[in-house]
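Weekly sync notes, structure subgroup
Attendees: PM, AL, DS (notes)

Item 1: joint prediction request from the bench team. They want all two components modeled as one assembly rather than separately. Inputs as received:
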Amino acid sequence: MRLSAQGAIVGGLASVLLLVAATHASASGGEATPRTRLTMVAPAAPGGGWDGFAREAQQVLRTDGTVAAPQVVNVPGASGTIGLGQVAQMGDRHDLMLVTGGVMVGGIVVNGSSVGFDDVTPIARLADDYNVLVVPGDSPHETLDEFVEALAADPGGTAIAGGSLGGIDHLLAGMLAGESGVDPADVNYLAYPGGGEVVTSMLSHTAEAGLSGYNEFRDQIESGNLRALALSAPEPVEGIDVPTFVEQGVDVSMANWRGLVAPPGISPEVEAELQAIVRELHASEGWREVLARNDWEDSLMMGEEFERFLEDETARTAQVVAELGL
Amino acid sequence: MDQLTHLLEGFSVALTPSNLLFLVIGAVLGTAVGVLPGLGSAMAVALLLPVTFSLDPTGAFIMFASIYFGGLFGDSTAGILLNTPGNSSAIATTFEGHRMAKDGRAAKALGTSAIGAFLGGTIACVLVVFFSPAIVRLATVMGPAEYFALTVFAFVAIAAVVADSIVRGLVSLGLGFAVGMVGIDAMSGAERFTGGTPVLFDGISIIVVTVGLLAIGEVLHVAGRIRTAGGNGPFLSPKGSPLLNRREWRQALPAFLRGTAFGVPFGAIPVGGSEVPTFLAYGTEKRLARRRGDADFGTRGAIQGVAAPEAAGNATAGSAMGALLALGLPTSATAAMMIAAFQQYGMQPGPLLFERSGDLVWPLLASLFLGLGILLIINLPFAALWARLLVIPRHYLYAGIAVVAMLGVYAISSRVLDLWMALAIGVVGVIMRHFSLPIAPVLIAAILGPMAETQLRRALAVSEGDPTALVASPFTIVLYLLLAATVAVSVVQHLRHARAERATKARVPA
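Output from the run, pasted for the record:
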């Protein structure tokens, strides 16, 4: 304990002092292999969702020795599309992966980004979690059916709060409206920068309903401040006592997934090596703990299956975004 | 008095030699990242997060708590000495603080700011320990209409006092609004003033604007006149102790308390952190100084102008911690990081926290007090040392400022474009100084403008375009009435002042 605590202190000081150096190191080339030095580009600011994912993976890779010196570099901005654009231009850089996920799919479509998933090499989808539709604890809407009815009767007066435009919450709101017989463009959607603010907008009764990750709402649901109506998973999830949309006869489902992609020009050997690293990461004890700690569902998916998934998600997102009138 | 027993138990858990070591490390680290512009305590916590998995929860929380407050102690240091606030929460402190430094009272300004940060934080933490449910209720009555009323109030309260010429003040405000507009509109997804550049989609970072206008602008301004006015020597050599004497305490103490009173309620509501209360505190002090006939304020620098905003900033941080724990609401980036940290230890901030993880919460609260105490002990002696920086001859000092400022800008998101923007904004800053346009309203508008706009549009979206929703709650009505009264009083004062001046002129013909 004592030793590890000291290690923690030294490590902490070193990581702060080397911050700028690390940022630079990533830009320089060298003869590193993915096994000696692997850079993970988190397309979000420190503290953002993708940053957390990258740092969790970095920690496991380093502790297990899968990669000698894993690094995380933050390239925030525009729903992650700035980071995507940079990686797409890195040609055959073989010691680097970009963290990606559902929010980036929306970002590419909404921002009209010139780069997409066709411009990078998909490596793997790793972990999912699901979003949940909630209403305030004292709301008259007891069930999803009642809420859908209210939404159909008065879409303008039934404001729904959620994350940024084109994000998973927004897409879910659009799909829910479509299923309720309402034009998605008529949804009165209030975009907030984060799940915490969505909680406040519920508690202050600004919005009739809210959408965010289940983890954001969990405690408020348990304490009765919020009432969960439906979960965005395709099938019931063990440990989450909320029925899915599909179970309740509303055909809406979408996962908030996280994964990794690599620069476009890498050789098949490098691609195989990166996949091997991800497989070792996925099989490790440390990764089990990460999944449990963050309440993420394991969703490992690689190769062609992952490529197909990306195509489907992009097409589906583009359709919903068009319906939402963005 | 249940809380008191719990808190004392918390102290007994937190007060071990190894925890004290973590406390000191966190305090130094937090102060260090706070001093550097661009590096905030959020980044320090983010970097340390994976490292702390190997610590026991109490040790980790203690370190986070001292980093959290350390950042707020440190951010005003560079602002006071070099006119380069480390964070937007220190902008208001910088105005009077840097004037004091130029007057040779840098140590005193730094000392005042450390004491203010300590007092504001401590009082807020005491309130959190005993009244967190009441503070938290604030968050649940505030809808977008209330937030909008608050931002309007802040605007009028501040803008009226920071500019001495109305026209110049409005020009500066307009500039700030324009800067705040850049980026993707969060309500409609429309791009505004981005020129199609994805890098601008998230807007211009307020750090870039602050560093550009204040630091780079100042460097260029000084460089442009270094051979004519002021010469090349150092500032007035800093003298005096960072400690306050009895007369200064009498001036500063009410300001500390006023600042704290502004800060505490704002920590609980997620309306954008500590900028609004620090600006409000600064505006109030300026108004009071004018009424007192205090000539130092705005010229040599007044101690109250440092004391109040600094206390407000840390009081906000203290009650933000209360909102974070009791409601699970992250009201700042650092608070959001700390939620992630708590979850690593199976501790879910929110309504059930105190019941479920009382054994972790009370040591955490105790460590907030310990962190504030240690920070005061560390920062007071350092104040005199920091102040010695100003002995350096100007051309070296300002070259150093330029380097540190640009490094900070680059550290935000490692983008070269940010550096060019900071330089361009710096040039604008020089032009503004040349034409005596005030800098403060630009920053205020750039921060408050987008906030006010978002809340207004949210309120109207919920009410489906019905403007009466803006004045539908007692809270908003009271606030607008107060606002009308403030404006009426200023107009009357202004007219009386103008008449008096005319009378003097008539008596003494030119």
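Discussion: Residues 30 and 70 of chain B are 4 Å apart (CA to CA).
Action: AL to compare against the crosslinking data before next sync.
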